[in-house]
Write a structure and sequence with these properties.
Blueprint (H helix, E strand, L loop, with lengths): L8 H8 L7 H10 L7 H15 L2 H10 L6 H4 L5 H9 L7 H18 L12 H11 L4 H24 L1
Helix pairs in contact: 1-2, 2-3, 3-9, 7-8
Length: 168
């Protein structure tokens, strides 16, 4: 695979623009600052992308949070997720929820959005539905500052998993 440093801008953005959900501006800023050197690897690219994300300020970070879909939400049922989100949710079995689980996810999604103003975000790849529901139920009780920080951490974890998948 070609390293990020060996790509032109167009290819870099095509490859890494979706690492942060619907937020290609992060990859663009990394490119504009100079992508990591050829031997630096996935962790260096992840660190560069996270630095851009963290430096962007609360409004842009909130926009990234809003770009994420609800887990086992209506958009997933309608087939409207990105390929990455579809694969991630399927890996956790969220595409196979029982009617009771779907109802629980729907209620939690609604309660979470009402409390925090953005969707519940969790890196679900490799997780089980019961683990996700337990985390959801625990986190909906967090205070807003704690949950905002947790959501940012989870976005960065999702980005790392996506970068690792691209490197394979």
């Amino acid at each position: 695979m070609t390293t990020p440093a060996g790509m032109d801008r167009e290819r870099f953005l095509a490859t890494y623009g979706g690492v942060f959900e619907h937020s290609p501006w992060i990859a663009a800023a990394v490119w504009d600052a100079g992508p990591p050197a050829a031997g630096d690897g996935t962790d260096a690219l992840h660190a560069a992308m996270c630095a851009v994300f963290r430096a962007a300020g609360r409004d842009r970070q909130l926009a990234v949070l809003h770009a994420h879909p609800d887990l086992a939400g209506r958009l997933a049922v309608a087939g409207g997720l990105t390929a990455d989100s579809t694969a991630e949710q399927a890996s956790a079995g969220l595409d196979r929820c029982t009617p009771e689980e779907f109802a629980r996810f729907t209620a939690l999604n609604d309660a979470y959005r009402a409390r925090f103003g953005f969707p519940f975000i969790m890196a679900v790849r490799g997780r089980r539905r019961d683990e996700i529901l337990a985390a959801f139920e625990r986190r909906v009780a967090n205070d807003p500052d704690t949950e905002f920080a947790t959501a940012l951490d989870e976005v960065e974890r999702i980005a790392l998993l996506r970068l690792r998948a691209l490197a394979q």
